[in-house]
Write a structure and sequence with these properties.
The complex is a heterotetramer of chains A (160), B (290), C (81) and D (740). Helix content of chain A is 34%, strand content 17%. Chain A has a five-stranded mixed beta sheet with strand order 2-1-5-3-4, with helices on both faces. In chain A, a hairpin with a 2-residue loop joins strand 3 and strand 4. In chain A, helix 2 packs across helix 5. Chain A is globular, with a radius of gyration of 16 Å. The mean pLDDT of chain A is 96. In chain B, a hairpin with a 2-residue loop joins strand 12 and strand 13. Chain C is of the alpha+beta class. Chain C has one domain: Beta-grasp domain (Ubiquitin-like (UB roll)). The chains are: A alpha+beta (160), B alpha+beta (290), C alpha+beta (81), D alpha+beta (740). Chains A and D meet through helix 2, helix 3, helix 4 and helix 5 of A and helix 1 and helix 19 of D. Chain A: It holds the Pfam family Fer2_2.
Chain lengths: 160, 290, 81, 740
């Protein structure tokens, strides 16, 4: 198996690692970089637990070959809080009990961030479709949707 | 297995020529699951996304040129494209989740040759052409001629799609795409239907109906299109008997299979429903200049 | 005497009787008494039955104390998800 | 919203603090089993049967053992053969096939290698010669005369049997005279129903890391609903004493009953023992769907009699469950207990049949949803025929305290009527049904269970308390433990750290199942706190120079007449001088689990041209006893409801003729996605369970029981077509609509 030296930015930090050419970005993040926030729920892009932002765009990191990350800017769930403050989504999820087991939570937070970055004022339907690629089996989605709505309100308030 | 990221079409051509059995990819949204499922791994994975031409969307001289590896979300976010081809934009917007649409491409959706590929009926309805890197040059063929069966294409070894071209639609022309899936998202189409039509006042003057997921490849249904041509439009609705003929023709054109996703009878029946509903949407758009 | 209510599955040992009286100060003693009078029943109740006593179901009721007017309901074991 | 007749005055119980383990989970630091890597760790992969039923003629691992990176290979020969009468026999043969593969996907070898890819490649290189045996996939095939034997070791439970058969279990409950009642009834409705296999669908695949040291002791990190269960089943499968194994519970990424058993740990342990290195074993999603779970498929016949004024007079049911390839599914009694009405005449029979499909596992209230689908559908049809309000019919017949359960014993204090009334009086039910939509109602019941729990409470020198239990926290139970401890001790809930400790650091605790964690483990926590308060009163008496009897515990402080209150923190600070560390442990085997009822209501539309159902509005009402942390109670109701919606509409196992699962992915095993659903409104009814210090009943399971019938009943009213087969997928609905 060939291996590729990959240089990229993860959560603001320049990093480099050696990855097997057939391995996924998810495996590289978890294995080479020790960032285990993104989870593998399916490995086929159907559950969204491995969601990360690559150059600002939402991706399933299980569907990206690790060498593709060369030169890119990656954000994982470990990188969305400020040094001292949780991201408003993280805070809203805690207060709104939007997680039960928590395995889908990293991916849901990233997908919700991608949504709110692009659309600060989404409707309930827009939130539901934006999160349709993120399976959650515990919550029935209700409290997730409400917490994204709450975070959107707070982010708009902060932006004013 | 080795990963390669050529930056020119010629470089990609050479890699494929030197390493028979290698695969080009853009989003890999089908390739990675296939490899996981035990499909033999190609010697070289040729990533097409570093080639500018394949990642570019251009609108000039009355036609669109869409790089074959461009993420479909670039199309759905392109207001001009979506205004001109609302149905095609709808179709590419249905290929998986937001995560998938940031990876999936027209080239991949077509070359993967799934009978259920959402973009393909909509591309065929709009007479989209595929520009293929072939030998030392390129050849251009209608999209309808690429897929020949499930997982089978007319692309020769070493050939790959570079870009798609599509002419701006004539005035009073629009399109729509609908599909049937059991959930609201994240499924493979059981039936897909694309309709493009042109109106002149309260008369349909031209119509193309293309179905997906009901035969080994997407199928154009001339009888369904013909059923609409000349049909009267009353208060935004196409004449009911023409729509019935359209639906019957669509159902009759189906050559589906029973599988885990749907039955023959279901696909046949719902193909007519989807075609009729897509036509109803398309006519509204064509009349209102949307 | 404690009254013992049997599931249909166990009534084959009692000639179809659904409720039988028994002796014993604990469920275990009751089961031993039943085994004497209905051979095989004690064994069946020891393995694969829980006991409902005073509105509460006990999975391993052997040493559970009962008094003379207690109703004991033997039921198939429960599980959960 | 919460409905409580007489709200008790608690300071902490019933509030909604941020859960203590939440922070790690939102920043991506919570450690699930697959997140752990040990130095020198190997990765393992399985070889699984490509056949539905076959004798293993030979397994040749020679080639595999010599492949790059391979350090160990195991087959069934590396595990002791348990006696078929051993209670762990079925788990043991499911972990690794011996002699025969019983379903497509059955594990029959595993490889540990330096990388996962090497392990997978080597596993694929193991050569197996099979002698194919007949495959039995459905209940009908299993019960047919002359049906091939699914599992030669199966001995029927609960009835006399003469040798192996496909019959797993028979349970019968009866009272009164159903034949006479049917003969004289005003109205009788009888229907047959069927449901497909469904999977629990937790997002986290099974995972573990096992390190067997040179001393023979095994360190296990595992995702499970009960790490003491993992210890005992792993030990049994390996032929070890349990004390050789220490199991540390990882965070668990969903279970729903599917992680109440083991699959991986003995395999990883043996590979680690053979290689001398830690071994990580993680299932793929395909493996999860092919070889874990599922819940049984079912067929049923339900016949109910009613009088013209709506009295239900008799019920006769037969429920058949295909329990998979082994016979340790103990849920059938639950199937027969959902007939929650005052039937004077009742005959219920449930049978479990073996099939060459994956060994089934519990799924929330195991076996109840399938039965409630049938019974509640027939009840609804009776309401339609009698032109009665569906809640009115149920209220007329609902069981209450003292009425006999299906099993005969009287119900304790229950809240079925309160739940029905809460829905009847809800905004949802009082609102008109939207144009073009229809409304359905359904109910559900589950026992809940008690079992063994332990808790240790350590009072720290800074006046905080650590609450240690052995119950893996799947849905927020740590927060509930902290709330009950805060209430007892009278300190701020954030001054309490609830943790789940390994098998060597806390007393034995049964699996988090049966909605029992907050009930039983909560009771252990309360007991420990009360013992701690006794000790604190004694210490305070020493400090204050009074008799212990003169000290009372009020709002987190020791109070004695004429003295300033002595807060807990002050006593904690003086632990050393007053007798040493303040630590208390309580253990119990809880009885008195409080049965739980749920009543659901759904508005939906059916697209009669495509058969697609759209759910517009949904309300779930459930008796929680007391909601310790209402947000997580709501979450349990909502999660169970949506799993039930998936079960009703689109989830099903699709097997080919050889028992190969055709839809072993989240693409084609269609669990609901966010855009499929509306908000799930909840109404928590609080009828306290008298057997629990805070009235807890447990809420995890009941919520999945009503949705199947609730949706079917709405579909029946929307289309005038009664769907009796699940899932009600678009093709099935359209076919039913087209059938005259």
């Amino acid at each position: 198996m060939s291996r590729t030296h990959v240089t990229c930015t993860v959560n603001g930090d320049p990093v480099d690692f050696l990855a097997s050419d057939d391995t996924s970005l998810l495996n590289a993040l978890r294995g080479e970089l020790g960032l285990t926030g993104a989870k593998e729920g399916c490995g086929t892009g159907d559950c969204g637990a491995c969601s990360v932002l690559i150059d600002g765009r939402l991706n399933c990191s299980c569907l990206v070959f690790a060498p593709e990350a060369e030169g890119s800017d990656i954000v994982t769930v470990e990188g969305i809080a400020d040094d001292d403050h949780l991201h408003p989504l993280q805070q809203a999820f805690l207060e709104g009990a939007a997680l039960q087991c928590g395995i889908c939570t990293p991916g849901v937070l990233i997908a919700a961030k991608a949504l709110l970055d692009a659309n600060p004022d989404p409707t309930e339907t827009e939130i539901r479709y934006a999160l349709a690629g993120n399976l959650c089996r515990c919550t029935g989605y209700d409290k997730i949707i409400r917490s994204v709505q709450e975070a959107a309100v707070r982010l708009k308030g902060a932006a004013r | 297995m080795r990963y390669a990221a050529p930056t020119t079409v010629d470089e990609a051509r050479s890699l494929l020529a030197e390493h028979p059995g290698s695969r080009v990819f853009a989003g890999a949204t089908d390739l990675i699951p296939q490899i996981r499922a035990g499909r033999p791994a190609p010697p070289v994975l040729v990533d097409l996304k570093r080639i500018d031409q394949l990642m570019t969307v251009l609108h000039e001289d009355g036609q669109w040129r869409i790089g074959a590896a461009t993420p479909t979300s670039n199309l759905t976010r392109n207001r001009d494209f979506t205004a001109m081809f609302p149905g095609l934009s709808e179709a590419v917007g249905l290929i998986g989740s937001d995560q998938i649409q940031n990876r999936s491409s027209l080239g991949g959706n077509l070359a993967n040759a799934s009978p259920a590929a959402d973009s393909v009926p909509a591309m065929i309805a709009n007479a989209v052409q595929a520009v293929i890197a072939s030998g030392d040059g390129t050849r251009t063929v209608p999209v309808a001629e690429i897929a020949t069966g499930p997982g089978q294409t007319s692309l020769a070894d070493g050939e790959f799609i570079v870009e798609f071209t599509v002419a701006d639609p004539p005035s009073n022309t629009s399109d729509a795409y609908l599909r049937m899936i059991p959930r609201t998202e994240m499924d493979i189409a059981i039936v897909g239907a694309a309709v493009r039509l042109t109106v002149d006042g309260d008369i349909v003057t031209d119509a193309t109906v293309v179905l997906g997921a009901v035969a080994p490849t997407a199928v154009t249904v001339p009888e369904a299109g013909a059923a609409l041509v000349g049909a009267a439009i009353d208060a935004g609705s196409i004449d009911g008997s023409a729509m019935d003929t359209l639906a019957d023709a669509a159902s009759a054109a189906c050559d589906p299979i029973d599988d885990k996703r749907g039955t023959v009878a279901y696909r046949r029946q719902v193909a007519g429903v989807m075609a009729r509903r897509a036509a109803a949407i398309a006519v509204g758009r064509a009349q209102n200049g949307v | 005497m404690p009254r013992v209510h049997l599931m249909s599955d166990h009534r084959r040992f009692t000639d179809g009787e659904a409720v039988v009286e028994s002796e014993g100060a604990t469920v275990g003693a009751v089961i031993a008494d039943l085994e004497q009078r209905y051979p095989g029943l004690g064994e069946a109740l020891t393995h694969g039955a829980s006991a409902g006593v005073n509105g509460e179901i006990h999975a391993e009721p052997h040493y559970l104390e009962v008094d003379t007017d207690t109703d004991i309901y033997f039921v198939a074991p429960l599980t959960g998800g | 919203m919460t409905v409580a007749a007489d709200p008790p005055a608690y300071k902490w119980v019933g509030t909604r603090p941020i859960r203590h383990d939440g922070y790690e989970k939102v920043i991506g630091k919570a450690r699930f089993a697959a997140d752990l890597d040990l130095p020198g760790q190997l990765h393992a992969a399985y070889l699984r049967s490509p056949h539905g039923h076959a004798r293993i003629v030979s397994i040749d691992t020679t080639t595999a053992a010599g492949m790059p990176g391979v350090k160990a290979v195991v087959t069934g020969a590396d595990f002791p053969d348990l006696d078929p009468t051993d209670p762990n026999f079925d788990v043991s043969v499911n972990v690794m096939a011996r002699g025969t593969v019983l379903y497509n996907g059955h594990a029959l070898a595993a490889v540990a290698a330096t990388t996962r890819a090497e392990a997978a490649a080597a596993a694929a290189a193991i050569q197996v010669e099979y002698e194919l045996l007949p495959v039995v996939l459905t209940l009908d095939e299993s019960t047919a005369d002359g049906a091939p034997l699914v599992n030669e070791h199966n001995v029927t439970k609960f009835v006399e049997s003469d040798g192996p058969s496909n019959l797993a279990t028979v349970n019968v409950l009866e009272r009164g005279d159903v034949d006479a009642a049917f003969a004289t009834a005003d109205l009788v409705v009888e229907r047959e129903f069927d449901t497909a296999h469904v999977h629990q669908g937790y997002i986290e695949p099974h995972a573990c890391v096992v390190d067997v040291g040179p001393n023979g002791k095994a360190d296990v990190w595992a995702s499970s609903q009960g790490h003491f269960m993992v210890r005992s089943l792993t030990a049994a499968t390996l032929g070890w004493e349990p004390s050789r194994i220490k199991v540390t519970p990882a965070e668990i990424g969903g279970g729903f009953g599917g992680k109440t058993t083991i699959y991986l740990e003995p395999v990883a342990a043996r590979l680690s023992e053979m290689s001398g290195r830690p071994v990580k074993l993680v299932m793929t999603r395909e493996e999860v769907l092919r070889a874990t779970g599922p819940a049984p498929a079912s067929k049923s016949r339900v016949k109910i009699a009613a009088s013209n004024d709506g009295e239900l007079t008799a019920i006769e049911c037969w429920f058949g469950y295909s329990v998979g390839c082994t016979n340790d599914f103990a849920g059938l009694i639950g199937a027969m207990s959902v007939a929650s009405y005052k039937f004077p005449n009742l005959k219920l029979e449930a049978v479990g049949m073996l099939t060459n499909t994956p060994k089934t596992a519990a799924y929330r209230a195991p076996s109840a949803p399938q039965a409630a689908f049938a019974i509640e559908s027939v009840i609804d049809e009776l309401a339609q025929s009698l032109d009665m309000d569906p809640i009115g019919l149920r209220l007329r017949n609902a069981v209450e305290e003292g009425d006999p359960t299906a099993m005969g014993m009287p119900h304790p204090r229950i809240g079925f009527i309160e739940c029905l009334e809460a829905l009847r009086d809800s905004d949802h039910y009082r609102s008109p049904v939207p144009d073009g939509a229809a409304r359905g109602v359904g109910t559900g019941f589950w026992f809940n269970i008690g079992e063994q729990s332990s808790a240790t409470v350590n009072l720290n020198e800074d006046g905080t308390a650590t609450v240690i239990t052995g119950s893996p926290d799947i849905g927020g139970s740590r927060a509930s433990m902290a709330l009950m401890a805060a209430e007892e001790l009278g300190i701020d809930v954030y001054r309490i750290t609830p943790t789940v400790a390994d098998t060597e650091s806390v007393g034995f605790t049964d699996v988090t199942e049966g909605s029992r964690a907050t009930f039983s483990t909560g009771m252990a926590v309360v007991n420990a706190c009360r013992d701690l308060i006794e000790e604190l009163r004694a210490r305070a008496a020493t400090i204050l120079g009074v008799e212990q009897d003169a000290v009372t515990w009020v709002d987190g402080a020791a109070v004695a007449d004429g003295q300033d209150p002595l807060p807990l923190s002050a006593i904690a600070a003086r632990a050393k001088s007053t007798g040493g560390p303040l630590t208390v442990t309580a253990s119990l085997n809880a009885a008195g689990a409080g049965p739980s009822f749920a009543v659901h209501c759904c508005d939906l539309t059916v697209d009669e041209e495509t058969g697609q159902v759209a759910i517009l509005r949904y309300t779930a009402v459930q008796d929680a006893g007391t909601a310790i942390h209402p947000s997580y109670v709501e979450g349990q109701l909502q999660g169970g409801t949506v799993q039930g919606i998936g079960w009703a509409l689109n989830e099903e196992y699709v097997f080919d003729d050889d028992g190969s699962l055709e839809n072993a992915s989240f693409l084609d095993y269609r669990i609901p996605v966010a855009s499929d659903l509306p908000m799930i409104d909840t109404i928590i009814v609080e009828v306290p369970n008298p057997a629990h210090p805070y009235g807890v009943r447990g809420v995890g399971e009941t919520g999945i029981v009503p949705p199947l019938a609730t949706i079917a009943n709405a579909v029946a009213r929307a289309t005038s077509t009664r769907m009796t087969s699940l899932p009600m997928s678009p093709p099935k609905i359209l076919a039913a609509l087209d059938t005259p």
